[in-house]
């Protein structure tokens, strides 16, 4: 919506509207100057009132002023307030300029704030009263002429304000739609960012576990080249299977990243025993005990799986060969407790201390479930990782 400030380049619609307004004001001015008498009640003409003593030069000036008023409408978009005030003053003494004045009032209400329009309307009311005193209409009583003039100006101002508010409403709805679209896009980007962060955590957990298995078996082959052929073949088989599974995990991750929407395959509590057996196969001597009944919620089960996975991975990294115990216990309404505890690492191991991103990711996972995570060294030189997860009844 053009506010009337600064230059305004007219388009085809503006040219048509401006030309129409100019011609309407000009036709009214011509008809007023020719002074056609109105028809009488019986179809005849009302006898003309006594002619006023108007000098010829004044008639010429009045017609020039009326023409100038009509021409000024071409600039009513750029200076609506100035044009409206000037035409109000002119209309006091020039009846032919009245139509141009009404058009300027409409443009003023359309392009300026309501407060400005109402102030100018007050000036217009004063001009109507002044005209009814200076140039009384011979056919209408002064009071009726005053009320009629105020009603006409008020109707024009009200019409302009209605269009003005309607345009503002449309513009507001358009801005709101653009704002809502921008917010939706930002929310989508934020959600995508969160999904990618979740994928990064999954990649860390899954590939970290697989690569730790590879590292353990590769280290065994390196330090024991004289091992029996059966043990070497067994280690090579585990390395091959772990490498193959790591490649499969990578393919799944890449497939998810390429897809517009999707999630990584998520483990469940049913996969927990297989996870422990894989760790036990590499000689970690893992003791696994469970004491719970019922069906663990999927999200809680996934988190429990990741806790055990991260704990076993850290044992292989920092305390290889240490005795490890995995315990899962709980009940609906009491919560699920998951604990991974390893003893002192043989051969001068590090005892399982780790300040990497794995524990940071676990802390975030557990906090999202409103659970608790504890980790730290034990009295026997080992390491303990324990978490409590809510399990609704």
Description:
- It is built from ten helices and five strands.
- The longest helix is centred in the middle third of the chain and has 82 residues.
- Helix 9 links the parallel strand 1 and strand 2.
- It is an alpha+beta fold and 393 residues long.
- Strands 1-2-3-5-4 form a five-stranded mixed beta sheet, with helices on one face.
- Helix 3 packs parallel to helix 5.
- Helices cover 62% and strands 9% of the residues.
- The chain has two domains: 157 residues, no CATH class; 126 residues, Histidine kinase-like ATPase, C-terminal domain (Heat Shock Protein 90, 2-Layer Sandwich), CATH 3.30.565.10.
- The N terminus is likely disordered.
- Its EC number is 2.7.13.3.
- It is an enzyme of class 2 (transferase).
- Keywords: ATP-binding, Kinase, Membrane, Nucleotide-binding, Phosphoprotein, Transferase, Transmembrane, Transmembrane helix, Two-component regulatory system.
Secondary structure layout:
Layout (H helix, E strand, L loop, with lengths): L11 H23 L21 H17 L7 H14 L4 H14 L2 H21 L7 H82 L5 H30 L13 H10 L4 E7 L5 H21 L5 E8 L3 E8 L14 H12 L3 E6 L5 E7 L4
Parallel strand pairs: 1-2
Antiparallel strand pairs: 2-3, 3-5, 4-5
EC number: 2.7.13.3
Pfam families: DUF7134, HisKA_3
Enzyme class: transferase
């Amino acid at each position: 919506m053009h506010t009337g400030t600064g230059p305004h380049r007219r388009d085809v619609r503006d040219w048509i509207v401006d030309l129409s307004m100019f011609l309407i004001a000009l036709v009214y001015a011509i008809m007023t100057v020719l002074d056609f008498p109105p028809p009488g009640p019986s179809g005849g003409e009302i006898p003309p009132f006594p002619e006023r003593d108007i000098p010829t030069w004044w008639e010429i000036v009045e017609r020039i002023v009326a023409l100038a008023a009509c021409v000024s409408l071409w600039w009513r978009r750029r200076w609506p307030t100035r044009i409206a005030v000037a035409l109000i003053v002119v209309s006091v003494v020039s009846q032919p300029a009245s139509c141009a004045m009404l058009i300027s009032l409409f443009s003023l209400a359309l392009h300026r704030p309501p407060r400005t329009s109402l102030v100018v309307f007050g000036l217009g009311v004063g001009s109507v009263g002044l005209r009814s005193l200076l140039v009384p209409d011979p056919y209408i009583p002064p009071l009726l002429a005053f009320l009629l003039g105020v009603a006409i100006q008020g109707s024009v101002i009200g019409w302009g304000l209605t269009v003005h508010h309607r345009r503002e409403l449309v513009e507001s709805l358009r801005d709101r739609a653009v704002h809502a679209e921008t917010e939706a896009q930002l929310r989508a980007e934020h959600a995508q960012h969160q999904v990618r962060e979740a994928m990064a955590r999954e990649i860390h957990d899954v590939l970290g576990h697989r690569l730790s298995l590879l590292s353990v078996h590769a280290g065994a082959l390196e330090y024991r080249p004289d091992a029996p052929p059966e043990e070497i073949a067994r280690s090579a088989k585990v390395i091959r299977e772990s490498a193959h599974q790591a490649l499969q995990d990578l393919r799944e991750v890449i497939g998810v990243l390429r897809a517009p929407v999707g999630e990584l395959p998520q483990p469940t509590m049913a996969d927990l025993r297989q996870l422990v057996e894989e760790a036990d196969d590499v000689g970690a001597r893992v003791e696994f005990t469970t004491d719970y009944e019922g069906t663990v919620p999927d999200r809680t089960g996934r988190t429990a799986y990741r806790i055990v996975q991260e704990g076993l991975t850290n044992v292989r990294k920092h305390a290889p060969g240490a005795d490890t115990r995995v315990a899962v216990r709980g009940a609906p309404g009491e919560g699920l407790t998951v604990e991974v505890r390893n003893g002192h690492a043989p051969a001068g191991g590090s005892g399982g201390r780790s300040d990497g991103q794995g524990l940071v990711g676990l802390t975030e996972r557990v906090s999202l479930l409103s659970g608790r995570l504890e980790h730290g060294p034990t009295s026997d030189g080992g390491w303990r990782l324990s978490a409590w997860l809510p399990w609704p009844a």
